[in-house]
């Protein structure tokens, strides 16, 4: 029997796959989606193992610990040690289940045919779908979108089978809250989990080969975050690495390059991710990948084979659910020549759900210095903001970076409660190519954290005026 033919076959039901499939189907294309996980496990890492579970766990930990009330008079911040891991994870099931249902409904609404099984290329335009206990299904697609995502990468020292060594997938199945946790890698995953476990009462050590965590962030923000994490009790081993893992009886010993030895009861490996491409048979088609298994694409997400597109974590990029969705859409707009948004915005925000949250969009001071762009910074603290006082977050701040001559907004950097929401005011201003004038003119609700935009702008104008007058800023 000849394979069923579709305009588009999407491999993977994560954010890149879902939005790519919906985009093409909305414009009348026939679409098949292949997902290796059995229903209802749609949504990839974003719904099942990454974004939603970790953010739900964070919210539950904040709630149960009373952390948000830590500076409210008469209330005490204390982790109630009798909380079981089941209680901690119970909300996750509800949130994840709702998201899985939403995705299934969305695909059904768009008339996307769903196939369960592992996809691979059986030949040009032909996808094989294999599932245990079922005959192989062959599908033919005029266009193929690879959206198979990524998986945690394990450095050589940690390629041992030990339930005490987990990654961001297996950490969701641990039996207890660890007494002592070592996090290996100070990227987004490492910092987010380090904060969560610290407020749940674990003694947390973070080992990072570089000299700072979250190196893509503005240094003032990452310094402030490290200070906050230090307040939570996180110990940093920076410019360090794990040389050897020893298992002596019940004791797990990590020998660091610095000479220190850590004896945790849980180790979280958060040292980056690799693209899920190994079993796709890409070599048969000549689709190029890099050393981490990620597919090389052009700005329209086309691979080295013209009818094959790739989006999301399976390509090199920010590795965010938010960008994966946009990439999936743009890829399909290009593949089918749809009359719609043409390219991916270069204004991609990052939201880091540490405790406290951090968020950014646009260049850092370091980027601007490297490019020789004259700029002026303006800051507003949560401490000097009525809402900041009310909620008891007095360490947060908003930092705006303006072009020194035009006072156009260039970059937005925030640390503190609601930072991942607050950044969107700046994001919208950046899209509108607005600057200081907008924030001066705007009237914000009082008391709100949003007001920090006005005061950070006043601060920038003041600094600029002082600089121009030859006074210290
Ligand atoms: C702990 C953690 C926290 C995160 N937090 C955030 C956050 O707060 N905000 C944010 O924006 N991003 C976050 N991310 C990143 C985000 O989850 C990913 O960027 C996003 O899921 C990538 O989407 P994707 O569609 O490319 O791939 P995925 O979501 O990984 O989906 C890929 C899908 O393809 C399927 N698949 C793989 N191989 C095959 C095959 N051969 N055949 C068929 N199906 C296959 C998989 O089963 C999966 O369902 C987080 C990630 C992690 C790990
Ligand atoms: N809030 C969010 O948006 C969010 C949350 C979690 C994850 N994510 C995404 O998930 C992806 C993966 O995150 P990640 O944190 O695993 O990777 P990452 O690449 O962001 O960070 C890995 C860190 O580990 C360090 N490292 C690497 N090998 C090491 C070793 N052997 N010892 C010590 N340190 C080592 C690196 O220097 C780096 O700082 C990222 O793309 C991220 O954007 C996003």
TrEMBL record:
<feature type="domain" description="FAD/NAD(P)-binding">
    <location>
        <begin position="6"/>
        <end position="328"/>
    </location>
</feature>
<dbReference type="InterPro" id="IPR004099">
    <property type="entry name" value="Pyr_nucl-diS_OxRdtase_dimer"/>
</dbReference>
<dbReference type="InterPro" id="IPR050151">
    <property type="entry name" value="Class-I_Pyr_Nuc-Dis_Oxidored"/>
</dbReference>
<dbReference type="GO" id="GO:0006103">
    <property type="term" value="P:2-oxoglutarate metabolic process"/>
</dbReference>
<dbReference type="InterPro" id="IPR023753">
    <property type="entry name" value="FAD/NAD-binding_dom"/>
</dbReference>
<keyword id="KW-0963">Cytoplasm</keyword>
<keyword id="KW-0521">NADP</keyword>
<feature type="binding site">
    <location>
        <position position="313"/>
    </location>
    <ligand>
        <name>FAD</name>
    </ligand>
</feature>
<feature type="binding site">
    <location>
        <position position="272"/>
    </location>
    <ligand>
        <name>NAD(+)</name>
    </ligand>
</feature>
<dbReference type="GO" id="GO:0050660">
    <property type="term" value="F:flavin adenine dinucleotide binding"/>
</dbReference>
<dbReference type="InterPro" id="IPR016156">
    <property type="entry name" value="FAD/NAD-linked_Rdtase_dimer_sf"/>
</dbReference>
<dbReference type="InterPro" id="IPR036188">
    <property type="entry name" value="FAD/NAD-bd_sf"/>
</dbReference>
<keyword id="KW-0285">Flavoprotein</keyword>
<comment type="similarity">
    <text>Belongs to the class-I pyridine nucleotide-disulfide oxidoreductase family.</text>
</comment>
<comment type="function">
    <text>Conversion of NADPH, generated by peripheral catabolic pathways, to NADH, which can enter the respiratory chain for energy generation.</text>
</comment>
<feature type="domain" description="Pyridine nucleotide-disulphide oxidoreductase dimerisation">
    <location>
        <begin position="349"/>
        <end position="456"/>
    </location>
</feature>
<keyword id="KW-0520">NAD</keyword>
<dbReference type="GO" id="GO:0004148">
    <property type="term" value="F:dihydrolipoyl dehydrogenase (NADH) activity"/>
</dbReference>
<dbReference type="GO" id="GO:0005829">
    <property type="term" value="C:cytosol"/>
</dbReference>
<dbReference type="Pfam" id="PF02852">
    <property type="entry name" value="Pyr_redox_dim"/>
</dbReference>
<dbReference type="InterPro" id="IPR001100">
    <property type="entry name" value="Pyr_nuc-diS_OxRdtase"/>
</dbReference>
<protein>
    <recommendedName>
        <fullName>Soluble pyridine nucleotide transhydrogenase</fullName>
        <ecNumber>1.6.1.1</ecNumber>
    </recommendedName>
</protein>
<feature type="binding site">
    <location>
        <begin position="185"/>
        <end position="192"/>
    </location>
    <ligand>
        <name>NAD(+)</name>
    </ligand>
</feature>
<feature type="binding site">
    <location>
        <position position="55"/>
    </location>
    <ligand>
        <name>FAD</name>
    </ligand>
</feature>
<keyword id="KW-0547">Nucleotide-binding</keyword>
<dbReference type="GO" id="GO:0003957">
    <property type="term" value="F:NAD(P)+ transhydrogenase (Si-specific) activity"/>
</dbReference>
<keyword id="KW-0560">Oxidoreductase</keyword>
<feature type="binding site">
    <location>
        <begin position="148"/>
        <end position="150"/>
    </location>
    <ligand>
        <name>FAD</name>
    </ligand>
</feature>
<keyword id="KW-0274">FAD</keyword>
<feature type="binding site">
    <location>
        <position position="208"/>
    </location>
    <ligand>
        <name>NAD(+)</name>
    </ligand>
</feature>
<dbReference type="Pfam" id="PF07992">
    <property type="entry name" value="Pyr_redox_2"/>
</dbReference>
